[in-house]
UniProtKB/TrEMBL annotation:
Alphabetical keyword list: Endoplasmic reticulum, FAD, Flavoprotein, FMN, Lipid biosynthesis, Lipid metabolism, Membrane, NADP, Oxidoreductase, Steroid biosynthesis, Steroid metabolism, Sterol biosynthesis, Sterol metabolism, Transmembrane, Transmembrane helix
Cofactor needs: FMN; FAD
Gene3D superfamilies xrefs: 3.40.50.360, NADPH-cytochrome p450 Reductase, Chain A, domain 3, Nucleotide-binding domain of ferredoxin-NADP reductase (FNR) module, Translation factors
InterPro entries xref list: CysJ-like_FAD-binding (IPR003097), FAD-bd_FR_type (IPR017927), Flavdoxin-like (IPR001094), Flavodoxin/NO_synth (IPR008254), Flavoprot_Pyr_Nucl_cyt_Rdtase (IPR001709), Flavoprotein-like_sf (IPR029039), FNR_nucleotide-bd (IPR039261), NADPH_Cyt_P450_Rdtase_alpha (IPR023173)
Signal sequence, start to end: none
GO MF annotation list: flavin adenine dinucleotide binding; FMN binding; NADPH-hemoprotein reductase activity
Catalytic activity: 2 oxidized [cytochrome P450] + NADPH = 2 reduced [cytochrome P450] + NADP(+) + H(+)
PANTHER family membership: NADPH--CYTOCHROME P450 REDUCTASE, NITRIC OXIDE SYNTHASE-RELATED
Highest classification ranks of the organism: Eukaryota, Fungi, Dikarya, Ascomycota, Saccharomycotina
Protein's name in the database: NADPH--cytochrome P450 reductase
Entry EC no(s): 1.6.2.4
Domain of life: Eukaryota
Compartments where found: Endoplasmic reticulum membrane
A GO cellular component entry from the record: endoplasmic reticulum membrane
Length: 682
């Protein structure tokens, strides 16, 4: 009896999975590049990015580096560097981003041996255990340039930031240990820290890792000090008396200070494009009780190129309600204009200056979101003993993670909520310095959205699909960015009914043109349709997870109307069924091989249905498509959906091909390795 193409595929996959299992490391090495030195990698010609030169010319002897995509590792790294410096003054610390240095030359890390006392790294993880985007050169160094034992004896400490709902939990930190310590010969001090933001415990993991790290550093380098030092500002705070024209009012860099300047890019996170909102609409019915905004940005004339499946970064601002509560709780004068001068030339300013306090709070600081226990602990130093009651309460709520969780986190308090909870009448502003706040509160970070347009069909615009986040409307526990998009979408006539309001005119009125503008930038992703236009695609995206699939479908309207596409979509009920109308009227009639399967989870008239159930119902179709080489795409919730969809596919393959679950699991893993199974999950 002959083998049909699928049986053959299964046999091949089984053989391949055995090979993969036994030679996993070799295969990964081949896929990611060899470890041998590549002389063609390039020569470092830019002196200002030369790590050793910067260390030597600034007389630094301790290096702390971070790799960060959305700023969390950066925040932790800077906190660590500052605390280390205040404890051990004799260390001359250089704290910086991997991105600021060239890693093209052989021995870039090896040259550190003997030049610095130690190296501490903070690193987050993305993709399949990879380093964040700004570390692309460093990752290349690790994979292709680093030589065996080049770091012999150099003390290294690593703190990883990750999320345990992803398959490769803290994969980047694990890679660092392998490359720097096991292969590079560096001496690992302490354990590799593993922050986990799936359960919001990064802060606690960091605090306990850091405490051990300080003890180890003190002993290893024979340092004196180690006590908790009082707060000492990193920057010199000066009153500004220069021209108004130079005062930042929320502009993200100096290119925007001159209103009439033409911006040609290239645009990125530090130089975003001010995009006009072309159109926006509400995607949920009023009966749903929720808002989901479809917003289109005009990118014509910007030179911005995107590809279907990329992400759009949106740079937000804080709502006026949150800003005024922050200023009043902390007794700050929002109009006070100030400048900051660097005390250490190798450090960087936290945001553009000169500016005023209200602008800084509105545009540059993450003042909402859960408050950190460490931040509350640090406040205690500023409260005099005469204010015994307040001091005692701060100690009580911050001394144990459990108490803090119960009293502060479970109540959804942000920083100002927490202060008002401790004492609504206390004059916090008399004691807590603004310089402490501006250095300690994390920076306001961009939010990313899966692009829901297609570069083929919508080359001059980019759309996003954003569910408006409201955790507790009464207490204004609302998402920063999605409520900003919601206010723009609702328009001034409906603004009164909204919980939050923003300065939609932007700095110097520069965001108010024909419509509104927002600072945005494109981030490349690997979530791409197959190059072969005839390859079938299976798309699974409940809720806003449907966003990139709208883009995929619109792509095929231009590139191949015969395309074999399946979309598994789930939502609560018909009222939050995103893009139902355009799908029924535009896509299904135009794309004859597009099949859409929808399930409702909160419609009392039908049994609760998730996308996994829809997939099982269509297992024959799925298997048939897989036999034809289909690509599988999953988008949306990383927490549980993505894992369960993976398991459902395993079940389908195992059942339909009559193979063991473990073998079906290996097949799905292989699909991921071969780029036939993609996830865009968050
Ligand atoms: C790669 C990627 C793609 C994404 N694609 C999409 C997409 O297509 N569509 C989409 O809608 N989202 C998407 N997201 C999520 C998006 O980036 C934002 O995280 C989301 O929109 C919330 O942003 P926000 O600023 O409105 O909320 P944030 O201000 O970041 O708040 C987040 C949540 O915390 C709650 N919160 C605020 N303060 C507190 C507190 N003190 N205690 C407890 N909870 C609090 C808020 O109510 C909100 O629910 C994506 C994320 C990533 C990483
Ligand atoms: N990790 C994050 O920070 C973050 C931030 C924003 C959104 N998300 C996730 O991204 C997704 C899209 O957000 P959204 O607000 O648009 O979604 P949503 O409307 O809350 O959910 C969309 C649909 O997915 C269903 N669902 C819930 N758990 C599921 C599971 N394990 N498997 C399959 N379906 C499941 C929901 O059913 P129910 O009726 O049972 O809820 C609903 O029918 C959500 O799943 C959300 O959790 C995550
Ligand atoms: C799109 C995306 C992919 C991620 N992939 C992983 C992963 O594979 N493994 C992991 O441990 N964490 C993963 N994370 C979690 C981040 O590493 C974690 O949130 C970290 O704190 C981010 O730090 P940063 O802001 O410095 O980049 C991912 C987060 C996002 C948004």
């Amino acid at each position: 009896m002959g083998l049909d193409p699928l049986d053959l595929a299964v046999v091949c996959c089984l053989i391949a999975s055995v090979v993969l299992y036994t030679k996993r490391e070799n295969i990964l090495t081949i896929l990611r590049g060899s470890d041998s030195l590549d002389p063609a990698i390039g020569i470092n010609t830019n002196g200002s990015k030369d790590l050793i030169e910067i260390i030597e010319s600034n007389k630094k002897d301790f290096l702390i580096l971070y790799g960060s995509q959305t700023g969390t590792s950066e925040d932790y790294c800077k906190k660590f560097a500052k605390e280390l410096h205040s404890k051990f003054k004799e260390l001359n610390i250089l704290c910086s981003d991997f991105e600021n240095f060239d890693f093209d030359e052989p021995n870039t890390l090896g040259n550190l041996v003997g030049k610095i006392k130690g190296l501490v790294i903070f690193m987050s993880t993305y993709g399949e255990g990879e380093l964040p985007d700004p570390c692309v050169n460093f990752e290349n160094y690790l994979n292709n340039i680093i030589e065996k034992d080049e770091m012999t004896g150099l003390p290294v400490m690593i703190f990883g930031l990750g999320n345990s709902t992803y398959e490769f939990f803290n994969g980047a930190a694990i890679t660092l240990k392998k490359k720097l310590v096991t292969e590079g010969g560096a001496k690992l001090l302490g354990e590799v820290g593993a922050g986990d933001d799936s359960i919001g415990s990064t802060e606690e993991e960091y605090v306990s890792w850091k405490e051990t790290a300080f003890e180890i550093i003190e002993k290893e380098f024979n340092l004196t000090g180690g006590e908790d030092a009082p707060f000492e500002p990193m920057y010199e705070y000066v009153n500004y008396e220069g021209s108004e024209d130079n005062v930042f009012q929320g502009e993200l860099n100096k290119n925007y200070l001159t209103a009439d300047k033409k911006h040609l890019g290239p645009f990125d996170q530090s130089y975003p494009f001010l995009a006009n909102v072309l159109e926006s609409k509400e995607l949920c019915d009023p009966e749903s009780g929720r808002n989901c905004v479809h917003m289109e940005f005009d990118i014509s004339g910007s030179n911005i190129k995107y590809e279907t499946g990329d992400h759009l970064g949106v740079i937000p601002q804080n709502a006026k309600e949150h800003v005024s509560k922050f200023l009043s709780t902390l007794g700050l004068n929002g109009d006070e204009v100030f400048d900051l001068k660097l005390k250490d030339p190798t450090s960087t300013l936290p945001f553009p200056v000169p500016t005023n306090i209200e602008t800084a709070v509105t545009n540059y600081l993450e003042i909402t979101g859960p408050v950190s226990r460490q931040m509350i602990t640090q406040l205690i130093q500023f409260i005099p003993d005469t204010e015994e009651k307040v001091k005692q309460r701060l100690v009580e709520i911050s001394s144990s993670p459990d108490v803090f969780h119960k009293e502060v986190i479970e109540a959804n308090f942000n920083f100002t909520d927490c202060l008002n909870y401790v004492s609504p009448t206390f004059q916090w502003g008399q004691y807590i310095p603004w310089t402490f706040l501006l250095e300690t509160i994390p920076s306001l970070k961009p939010r990313f959205y899966s692009i829901s347009s297609s570069n083929l069909k919508d080359s001059d615009k980019i759309s996003v699909t954003a569910m408006v986040e409201v955790t507790d409307a009464k207490k204004l526990v609302c998402g920063v960015t999605t409520n900003l998009l919601n206010e723009i979408n609702k328009g001034p006539e409906n603004a009164a009914s909204l919980p939050l309001h923003y300065n939609l005119s932007g700095p110097r009125g520069s965001y108010k043109a024909e419509s509104y503008k927002l600072p945005v930038f494109v981030r490349k992703s690997t979530f791409r349709l197959p190059k072969n236009l005839d390859t079938p695609v299976i798309m699974i995206g409940p809720g806003t997870g449907v966003a990139p699939f709208r883009g995929f479908i619109r792509d095929r309207l231009i590139s191949n109307k015969e395309a074999d596409m399946m979309l598994f979509y789930g939502c609560r009920n018909v009222h939050d069924h995103l893009y139902k109308e355009e799908c029924d009227k535009e896509y299904i009639p135009e794309l004859k091989n597009l099949k859409v399967f929808t399930g409702y989870s909160r419609d009392p008239t039908v049994p609760k249905t998730y996308v996994q159930k829809l997939m099982l119902d269509e297992k024959d179709l799925i298997m048939e498509a897989l036999k034809k080489g289909a690509f599988v795409y999953v988008c949306g919730d990383a927490g549980s959906m993505a894992k369960q969809v993976n398991d459902t596919l395993v079940t389908i393959i195992s059942e339909k091909q009559d193979i063991k679950i473990q073998d079906a699991q290996e097949m799905v893993k292989l699909m991921k390795l071969n780029g036939r199974y993609h996830e865009d999950v968050w």
